[in-house]
User: What shape does this take?
Amino acid sequence: MAELFAKYFPNVVYQGWNGDGGWLPAIGQTLYMTFWSAIFGGILGLVFGIGLVLTDSDGILPNRGTFSFFDKVVSFFRAIPFIILLAFIAPVTQKIVGTQIGTTAALVPLSLGVFPFYARQVQVALASVDHGIIEAAQSLGATFSDIVFDVYLREARSELIRVTTVTLISLIGLTAMAGAIGAGGLGNMAIAYGYNRFANDTTFVATLLVLIFVLLVQLIGDFLARVLNHKNI
Assistant: This one.
């Protein structure tokens, strides 16, 4: 089996598992970028998404100015293509992490690239919560935190998991794009070691690994959304 694999995927075997151009470092870099960007971008997106719902005209804290601020910031970053965002915020990245290239440097544009998408997804998910439940909670004297955490987030948790899954899948795609311009990971493997060197087998395997990651995220997300659906609890 090993000989057959080496015959049809010689460049994949040549890359090896370890070293600067190895498969394990590439996989680790993709997971590293995905995980930390999901944390930073997810927190930012959740804050803005909640803010958009709460300060909207029919929210529990209607405020036109605050809503406009949240809305314009999200729309601004969402309108910038990610490949341009990488260059646009390079000086900011330099100030934060001390360099504009590399896996860690990619976390800044990745987080800013994914947060507006997630914020809009969170906004839609929370806006779907039945207003009757919110009004009932208010009539019973629920505090602001009670409404946010026990009503909005609890009632929309299944939908939030679904939109988080979609966002993670999108983020994996962004890490591949960042990798293609020097951030490392499977995107760099597919382009720098595969496409640029006409090593189609390397490009194929790198793409296959990305698809496997996407499939795993989708399966786990669907499972959690089904298990944590408040209608089933």
The two ends are 48 Å apart (CA to CA).
